[in-house]
Here is the input.
Amino acid sequence: SLDALSALSGMVASAGLGGAVALALSFAFGSLVLAPRPVLSFVAGLSYGFAGLPLALLSATLGAALAFWISRRFARPLVARFVATRPKMLAVTRAVDQEGWRAVLLMRLGPVVPSSLQSYLFGATRVALWPYLAATLIGISPGVVVHVSAGALSRTALETAFQPAHAWLLATGLVA
Here is the structure.
């Protein structure tokens, strides 16, 4: 609920640097357990306003790097067996093997497969780490910007006394 998110963002924001570190660790852990990144991006915006954008982008990218590394280092055979029985996933991994960072970028821009699962899939391909990270950062940016903005606008709405004109402007901003 909005009250729970508001309370959570208040705790994160009031914790200072510790809150930012806790949110960053939540992004990393969330990437490992397939948690939805939009919720954490929204909390970053709700907690820090638009200043939460760099935190959300870097934390989400680091979480994706961690999932990629775990897949590449430890889970590659398991991921390969999982992919082999699913034609769509097999097509994705083949595209990444052939196109490298370009396929990663396109998959991140239009996520057909959940982002956290993508990180594990990409770890089982031949794409190199640095091109993967660059494509991931660029590809997730539009979505993260939207979710952090929604959180920041919600923060503003919660902090501001209700005025119809102001509410209309906020609603228009959220829709945009």
